[in-house]
Amino acid sequence: MNHWLSSLLGLLTLAMGLSTHPTPSHSSKATVAEVATVLHTKVHQLLSLYVKDLLQGAILKGDHRLPSLPLLSGSATDLDSVQADVSLPAIQSSLRTYEAHLVWLRDNKLIQRTNLTHKITEVLRLLQSLAFRVEDEMQKLNLPRQPTTSFALTVTKNWPTLRAGYIILRDLRIFLNKSAHELLELYPEW
Questions:
Q1: In the 3-class helix/strand/coil scheme, how is 56-105 assigned residue by residue?
Q2: pLDDT in tens, 53-65
Q3: What does the DSSP 8-state code read for residue 21?
Q4: Which of 17, 110, 133, 142 is 20 to 30 A distant from 84 in Cα terms?
Q5: What CATH code is assigned to 31-186?
Q6: In the chain, what are the domain boundaries?
């Protein structure tokens, strides 16, 4: 019974964003796929708030990309051939790239004038927790880390900043959806 309650409390803590530090709690029984799913939900909520508060409800249409973000590719059929030695380093590198982008977004003066800074920090904590857990697993499997994509966003004007923020959150949401499925395929119990 105690194990069940501790698992439920760990999941609720993650879902409510009550984690007080970026490192994962080793006593938490939430699986990595569950952490990725909770993070996906938080990013989805943040993106909705971002669109509502900063873009006045207008979703950007067209093919908007940032070259500093990981390229999103793959399909559902790729899940049949997921391998830890390929997927984990790619997930880890992408998580660290998104982390740098979220820090830039959170620290941007335009964003700091809104109520989104706290939400971005909450997403950052969950993302860092997921990255640490993936890195721990990579270390156990003796897998090398991939380099993180270089990051050089220097946008200071309002519209390019708002556009970049939207793209970061949109692509992170898509990436997390794919990553959660890959992690679940690799480690149903992890």
A1: CCCCCCCCCCCCCCCCCCCCHHHHHHCCHHHHHHHHHHHHHHHHHHHHHH
A2: 999 888 888 788 8
A3: S
A4: 17
A5: 1.20.1250.10
A6: 31-186
